[in-house]
Amino acid sequence: MLILDCPCCGVRGEETEFAAGGEAHLKRFGPGSTDDQFHDYLFMKENPKGVHLERWRHANGCGKWFLAARNTVTMEVYGTYSAQTTEPPQEIKDKISAKVPGWSWREFS
Ligand SMILES: [Zn+2]
Hints:
Layout: E1 3-5, E2 12-14, E3 19-23, H1 35-43, E4 51-57, E5 65-71, E6 77-82, H2 90-99
Antiparallel strand pairs: 1-2, 3-4, 4-5, 5-6
């Protein structure tokens, strides 16, 4: 069972209280982008076996979007944080690095 803490309202709940929104920290491409950029934005998502950064919405609660760092194998949640960020907070990155040797944050530009 996946237990998430909503960073917006502070409620802890199981995943049925939330709605998954896919990969977090996507670089968006729209008008003016090349076909390849737009294609990759739409269809080329990560599906890692391990650490994944995801978007979630507190659908049966405050209704707000937030981001979560979790492990898709162990279901461990490393932390949740505001959706208004461009990368995970340093404390979450440190926690992941301590538990998953070799993991590194990829740079988004
Ligand atoms: Zn909430």
